[in-house]
Amino acid sequence: VVMMGVKKGVEKVSKLMMPVLLILIVGISIYTLTLPGAIDGLIYYVKPDFNQFSIKTVIAAVGQLFYSMSLAMGIMITYGSYMRKEDNIESSVRQIEVFDTLVAFLSGLIIVPAVFVFSGGDENALNAGPSLMFITLPNVGAVFFLLVVLAAMTSSISLMETVVSIVEERFHWKRIPSCLIVTGISFLIGLLSVFGYSIWSDFTIFHMQFLDFFDYISNNIMMPIVALMTCVLVGFVVKTTFVEDEIEKNTRFRAKGLYRVMIKFICPICMLLILFSALFLKL
């Protein structure tokens, strides 16, 4: 898909895969709720329990937000560079926020009730992390694997497009050789996650399997650091007007004041809290 380029490859495939992905999420969530014991999971999911609420909960949610919104990994910057001058950036951001939140909520309707069903109502099973994908959730059925494949494909295409575009520009290589090299490297690194749940399952890093460790390092360490550096760069080096002028080329930037405060002060503080939590609470 990435070899075919942005318009003929990424754009065409995304227009097909994303609607199918959404239909599958809705269908599987409805099916999951029909399973015996699923209603207990639904109640646990939607009913607030403020006794369980803490700053650690907020930090964990923000950490998950990075991957969900494709932040601090170059994807938004890469795709943003492909936007047309007449596109409304602020409106596009609003659409991304709404659909991302909707899909996240629907995904929760699959995951939480399914865990309750297949763990006998054990709340602690929800803390299994990425291993839920391979141990608990496959019990939902074969269609779940189709959902996982589509979700993985859309994420992989985005991530690969970002890396390939960087390789193309940095080394002045053509798209096909760049794709082949990136694919080869990704395949070799990916084997660690594959074997981490099979022949190398006894080997752990900080008591985590390879996949769990990679997930932890990327979501809770690398991405907050990149986000923090981005906030410093945009807020204090190139200044927020650099982004504001781009947005206001064809519309009024209604959230300009909030944007400045978030980039300069709120987001950097949040990034430091996430890093502190990841380094001193997890390890």
Describe this protein's structure:
With 283 residues, this protein is mainly alpha-helical. Helices cover 73% and strands 0% of the residues. It has 11 helices and no strands. Helix 1 (6-33) packs parallel to helix 5 (89-118), helix 7 (142-171) packs across helix 8 and helix 9 (210-237) runs antiparallel to helix 11 (256-282). It is globular, with a radius of gyration of 20 Å. The protein starts with 5 loop residues before the first helix and ends with a helix.
Distance between the termini: 38 Å
Order of helices and strands: HHHHHHHHHHH
| Proportion in helices | over 70%
**Total number of helices:** 11
Main sheet attributes: strand count, strand direction, barrel closure: none
**What is the averaged pLDDT score?**
88
- What shape does the CA trace take? globular
| Class inferred from helices and paired strands | mainly alpha
- What's the number of extended β-strand segments? 0
Q: β content, as a range?
A: under 5%
Radius of gyration: 20 Å
| Poorly predicted parts | none
What is the structure about, briefly put?
The protein has 283 residues and is mainly α.
Key structural traits:
11 helices; 283 residues; globular; single chain
Topology at a glance:
Layout: H1 6-33, H2 38-46, H3 55-68, H4 75-81, H5 89-118, H6 132-135, H7 142-171, H8 175-196, H9 210-237, H10 241-247, H11 256-282
